[in-house]
User: Which sequence fits this backbone?
């Protein structure tokens, strides 16, 4: 009988303590969630999110979501008052962890033009660097540094406060000589990683599937643990750069390597972009069929959105450290499938030809391109000497395994290539990177 008051007291304490903590947090935060629910309650429960309204630090009205902090797996919703932004950290169970601060190299390049906005939207703080002066379109919250990673003058405070490195800077054979490819891939990677501070949480290196090469037959599908055998200058430079990354990994740097295949999507100026241009040139020149060689060649592609999603996913996936990942859509269209998608997108029909060198020659395509430029076409997409070059590249190691990537619970969002390519063609058309009559 004497135990009853003790039990009662313990029960009251068990109820009162968490309730008073929740109320205290709510009062301290000063937010007014639309749902009238305490923010901390919302944050720690699995209930559907509520939207917070209020004024941000600059006095602007705001409504919407923010991520909480570096590692918080939950989404934080913007509090109603500026002082609540300060109180926010004290609400997070991961409060000791600093915000996620990315250093993004190759930030003026094409892949980064997609990755940078995705990082910002995901709540990262970003320091970006390229060699050219700050691009005018960079959002003002991005700290931009113009630096040649192969220079002798050191990297200054490039790493200050950085928690994660996304190393994208590099040069490819479309625009660079062998010497430049070596400098901007191998030397740049060596110097950048040599300056990496201890305590960096992750280094993500953007390598390439070209490291596998095309001459030596590798097991099919090619898994990431197969010793690569690069056959050309670009693949060799990327593989040598990877050696720099793996050496630093062996010395304790938490590295993860991505090996994407040809990437396509809005803003792409080569590979599939060049094939879109070739098709548009022939349509403009009045051809109503797109001719391709009757012998089909298996292709491989990945949409830029999936590469960006894979990068954001792997850079925070604990088990990814020390591993390489092929990044390629599982669907492997033939050159006929791709040509048929391109032809349809430009209002043409597919024609299978006996000759590999069918369609308009380089001079005719150059002349047509000049006419289109005269009509206001933007000059960004590269015109290749070999027509539809991407579709003609046979590769005995074309099939790559994506089992490792899928085992991390990553799923492709743009696996249906037809609609994704049509959407890209639409982007080129809308931005006048191609013209159609
Ligand atoms: N695009 C693809 O289909 C593809 C496929 C597989 C792998 N990758 C790899 O992905 C990465 C990014 O590709 P991307 O298509 O975005 O390349 P990109 O458009 O050619 O951009 C290259 C970037 O690297 C920077 N850079 C080059 N050399 C540098 C140096 N010495 N110091 C500092 N910055 C330097 C450039 O800066 P500035 O322009 O300001 O000089 C630019 O920001 C590359 O490493 C590439 O090998 C690309």
Assistant:
């Amino acid at each position: 009988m004497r135990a009853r008051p003790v039990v009662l007291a313990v029960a009251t304490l068990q109820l009162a303590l968490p309730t008073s903590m929740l109320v205290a947090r709510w009062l301290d935060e000063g937010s007014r969630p639309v749902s009238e629910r305490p923010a901390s309650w919302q944050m720690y429960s699995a209930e559907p999110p509520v939207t917070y309204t209020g004024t941000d630090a600059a006095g602007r009205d705001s409504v919407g979501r923010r991520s909480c902090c570096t590692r918080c797996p939950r989404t934080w919703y913007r509090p109603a008052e500026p002082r609540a932004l300060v109180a926010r950290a004290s609400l997070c169970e991961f409060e000791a962890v600093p915000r996620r601060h990315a250093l993004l190299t190759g930030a003026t390049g094409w892949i980064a033009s997609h990755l940078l906005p995705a990082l910002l939207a995901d709540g990262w703080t970003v320091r970006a660097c390229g060699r050219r002066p700050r691009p005018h379109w960079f959002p003002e919250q991005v700290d931009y540094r113009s630096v040649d990673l192969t220079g002798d003058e050191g990297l200054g405070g490039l790493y200050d406060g950085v928690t994660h490195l996304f190393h994208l800077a590099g040069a490819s054979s479309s625009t660079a000589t062998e010497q430049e490819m070596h400098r901007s891939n191998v030397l740049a990677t060596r110097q950048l990683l040599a300056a990496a501070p201890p305590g960096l949480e992750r280094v993500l290196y953007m390598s390439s599937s070209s490291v596998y090469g095309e001459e030596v037959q590798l097991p099919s599908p090619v898994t990431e643990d197969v010793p690569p055998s690069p056959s050309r200058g670009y693949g060799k430079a990327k593989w040598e750069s990877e050696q720099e990354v793996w050496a630093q990994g062996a010395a304790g740097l938490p590295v993860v390597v991505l090996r994407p295949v040809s990437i396509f999507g809005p803003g792409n100026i080569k590979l599939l972009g060049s094939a879109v241009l070739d098709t548009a040139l022939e349509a403009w020149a009045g051809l109503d069929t797109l001719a391709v060689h009757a012998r089909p060649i298996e292709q491989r592609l990945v949409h830029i959105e999936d590469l960006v999603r894979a990068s954001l996913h792997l850079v925070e996936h604990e088990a990814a450290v020390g591993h390489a990942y092929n990044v390629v859509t599982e669907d492997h269209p033939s050159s006929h499938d791709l040509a048929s998608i391109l032809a349809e997108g430009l209002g043409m029909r597919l024609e299978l030809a006996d000759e590999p060198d069918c369609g308009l020659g380089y001079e005719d395509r150059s002349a047509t391109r000049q006419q289109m430029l005269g009509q206001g076409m933007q000059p960004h997409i590269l015109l290749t000497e070999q027509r539809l070059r991407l579709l003609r590249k046979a590769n005995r190691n074309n099939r790559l395994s994506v089992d490792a990537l899928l085992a991390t619970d990553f799923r492709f969002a743009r696996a249906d290539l037809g609609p994704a390519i049509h959407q890209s063609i639409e982007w080129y058309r809308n931005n006048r990177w191609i013209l159609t009559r």
